[in-house]
Amino acid sequence: MTSPRDDDRFDWQAAEADLTAGPDAEVVDLDAARSRRAGVDADDLDETDAAGGPVLVDSVEAQRRPRFTLAGFRDAERRPILPGWLRSRSEFAGNLAWAVGLTGHGVLYHGLRLPKYAGKLAWRAPVGVHRVASGYGRWLFDLEGEPVRQAVVRAAVTRPEEAKTYEMLSRRRDRRVRWRGLTAVPAAVVLLAGVGGVLLAPTAVQVAALTVAVVVFGVLGAPADRPLLDTAVVRNPVTPLTSDEVVRALAALNISGINAALRRGDTGKRWFPAPITRENGTGWRADVELPRGVTASAVVEKREELAAALTRPLGCVWPEANAEVHPGRLVLFVADKDMSRSKQGAWPLLKSGAVDLFKPFPFGTDPRGRAVTLTLMFASMIVGSIPRMGKTFSLRLAMLGAALDPRAWVLAFDLKGTGDLSPLEPVCHRYRAGDEDDDIAYGLAAMREVRAELRRRTKVIRELPRDLCPENKVTPDLASTKRLGLQPIVIGVDECQVWFEHPKYGDEFEEICTDLIKRGPAAGITLILATQRPDAKSLPTGISANAVLRFCLKVMGHTENDMVLGTSMHKSGIKATMFSRRDRGIGYLAGEGDDPTITRTFYIDGPTAEQVIRRARALREKAGTLTGHAAGQAVDTTAVRRDTLLDDIAAVMSDSESKLWSEVVCDRLTGLRPEVYTGLTREQLTAALKPYGVTTGQVWGTDPATGKGANRRGIDRAHILTAITKRDREQGGRAAG
């Protein structure tokens, strides 16, 4: 199309000439630009061309992976020769018991219906005889070819040449029938001889022959849509897990890194470093190498969405991070049945067996149905969750295991006060339920006993010969030697926050429990603390940071998660926040193995726990190890005399001694009331004075042993008198009110 006025046309050639001639004009070398896009500098074009092509940043040798190297074979993971269920005695026994049970069920089911099956066979036998006779007759007289011969006869009406075909078919049919008739004669003779032999045989043979005939003809006479046997077991087919299904499910999670990889054309086929396999007959395991930059914890956090994308029940889908490989390695296990609703086997120690606390004992099962064990010796434990998720039952299960070791002292403190730990009472060295003042005093007195026992044990261990105690800790042989008194001690405290948040004794409880968690395991003392409110007050830092074993059921946030399981566990993909409300008794168990394990604890209700304790008490009576509360001994709570502490300190500090070292005050208090203050330490005294607002400070004094002066932590008598005045005023005000 041309412009109506030639003068208005734009002169492109002139404009291009003006641009080229301008001072800022630049001529673009297309070859150099293309080379730069390919990763080659324009200045090096001659050199690269001379060398025969562009120089790669990573050479071919650098990109080539060695196929066969000694280091590679050393680092390679060896696949187990035998499957896990064959290497585990408990799993093999469980599978064998299941197979025997299934077989027994089938035998009993069909055995009960034998009369019904016999009637069916008798009813169908005539039909079977008719089918056999008619089938033999059709074969004998070649009735199978009759439709063909009739078709040829009808065709011969219009096509006479078909008559020859019919004649040929007739001759063949006659020869075939003649030969079959000759074979039928000896068959008939044999049949008649057999029938005659049966008629002349004993009754038992006749019955057996008739039974066989009825069974054979009854099976042959059965309708095609009505089988003889009823269905003893109805199987629910489970859809196999495929790589396409996993990739589609991951794409539905709306994780940016996964979506970006799929948009780039990644099909996800290379995301699987190992084939998806069937594990233990309970589900499918898929190891997934997520795209670069995507962490497995991002998938774990979206477990509910993942289950919806896989169209499986939430309790069947269990994603975990395999941090041993790297944070982007996902292990996805999809079970056939909902873990929270599937039938779990009975606790192996329910009816028989004892426990050696130095060895693992059964605690639960993982999503694959494999046994998960717990070893209480040389470790302390924390159990945490929101209410009604199985925290107390998990604590009681661990305590039941300890009770089945007849050597162990078991101390149980139910601070919730509902009696959930009452089944343990017949074997407990110390037992108390409740949070009243008397209950708190009992618990404090008992914990002071354990603290004194810890000091005694450390001295005993220190003085033992090296050949008997090479590692300076309690061994199974030492624990079994009664004269040493180094038997295991297991302390279980439910709702431990009641102790630590107590206005008067909380600091002392915290100080004792922290010491037991730090030094107790080497001396054979295990402390198990359970709380439904995992925070800094319920689980002080000194306690939460030093517990080895941790069991976390459902919690609501990452802070509570890390308080129970350990720092940064939530960030590493170990998230107890993913459990649902129906996942009761299911949590992460950390500290027992290399990696935290999703564990469903064995369910033992109160009456069942009482049965176990009756057996545990019988073991103790036989071994002669009943002690403390179980043997009828009471705890002297007069040692918990904090109401008179201020008055006692004022009594042992004269007017001329305005300040004294704390250890001097402890010695004088012991001399004043030895039944109350024996074993009192400087740290305990400081903790006991804290509720009254009295703090210790630097005090100048003279060491009576050396005669030298020094500054040490001590008490100001004026502070004690002020605290007494404040206490009396408050008590008087309460009395007047």
Describe this structure in words.
A 10-stranded mixed sheet has the order 6-5-14-13-12-7-11-10-8-9, with helices on both faces. It has a 4-stranded antiparallel sheet with strand order 1-2-4-3. Strands 15-17-16 form a 3-stranded antiparallel sheet. The chain is an alpha/beta fold. The protein is built from 28 helices and 17 strands. Helix content is 45%, strand content 12%. A hairpin with a 5-residue loop joins strand 5 (361-365) and strand 6 (371-374). The model is unreliable at 1-7, 38-51 and 733-737 (pLDDT under 50).
Secondary structure: elements and pairs:
Elements: H1 12-21, H2 30-37, H3 45-51, H4 60-63, H5 70-75, H6 84-87, H7 89-112, H8 114-140, H9 146-156, H10 162-200, H11 203-220, H12 243-251, H13 256-263, E1 277-279, E2 283-289, H14 296-300, H15 303-310, E3 317-321, E4 329-335, E5 361-365, E6 371-374, E7 381-384, H16 391-403, E8 409-414, E9 430-433, H17 437-463, H18 476-480, E10 489-494, H19 497-500, H20 506-519, E11 525-531, H21 541-544, E12 549-552, H22 558-565, E13 586-590, E14 597-601, H23 606-623, H24 645-652, E15 659-661, H25 662-672, H26 674-677, H27 682-689, E16 697-702, E17 709-716, H28 717-736
